[in-house]
Amino acid sequence: MTLTPPFVELVVFRANTRCMNDPGPFKEVRDMAARTTTVNAMYWGHSVQSPSTFLWLLLWDSFEQCVLKEGTSSYYAELVNSLDALVEDASRKIVYHLHFSDHPLLSCIESPITEFSISVLDDIQHLDTWNSLADLIIADVRATCLDGFFGLAYASPLEDVKSIAYFAGWESSEAHMKLGAGEEESHENFRRHCEEFFPYAKHIQLHHICFERHV
Fold first, then answer.
1. Cβ pair 209, 47 in contact under 8 A
2. What is residue 123's DSSP assignment?
3. CB–CB of 209/114 below 8 Å?
4. Can you give the pLDDT at residue 2?
């Protein structure tokens, strides 16, 4: 099947000491991907809260473009091995494929600060309720019309419908912290829907990231 761009490959990993002490090797990995693939753009950054947590985003035209890279390119194993040499525990590295059909991803990751979270559902039987609450929370965020909010995007990975990856663009971490703090109806709805959403989550991780575009 062909998916409308942007189609995103998301890599999340905890960097080892070598990667933390020397930015060169990870740049070499990104350079290798840029040289040997038809990737449209790449962004990367690390968590403000947990500096050893890195995110790497590769933007593709289609799912097929990414699969072709993984399935037929002789360099792919070398690329994976080079990245894994910079990872604290390769078995815990996350690789997701996401399709953002209706949401402005670039406005999120090109903002001064990006809020990023992955939420994992506890039981597949709650999937419909989970997705409905996620849609309500997204609508609440947009309705707050906060200063310093630039946009949001979310999608479930093709590999795991029980997970939701969420990106929101902000002027600053402080601007994000104002979300839900007001007394307006949209803020009240946001707090209420989050309280309903969280009990269904087996795991939630949240980070603030300053993404850089790889050039």
1. yes
2. -
3. yes
4. 47
Q: What is the pLDDT of residue 93?
A: 96
pLDDT in tens, 157-175: 999 989 999 999 999 988 8
Quote the pTM value.
Answer: 0.88
**Cα–Cα nearest to 158, from 100, 105, 117, 209:** 100
Distance (Å, rounded) from C-alpha 77 to C-alpha 185?
Answer: 52
Measure Cα distances from 129 to 47, 104, 150 in Å. Answer: 30, 24, 27
Environment class of residue 98 by beta-carbon count within 10 Å: exposed (0-12), middle (13-18) or buried (19+)? buried
Beta strand pairing status for 163-170 and 149-155?
antiparallel
Strands ordered across the beta sheet of 113-121:
149-155, 163-170, 113-121, 201-209
DSSP 106: H
pLDDT digits (tens, 9 = 90+) for 102-133: 667 888 999 999 999 999 999 999 999 988 99
List 118's β-bridge partners, or say none: 165, 205
**Are 190 and 176 contacting, i.e. CB atoms less than 8 angstroms apart?**
no
The whole-number pLDDT of residue 179 equals 80
40 neighbors 72 (Cβ within 8 angstroms): no
Alpha-carbon span 174 to 208, nearest angstrom: 11
- Token duo for residue 137: 């929370």
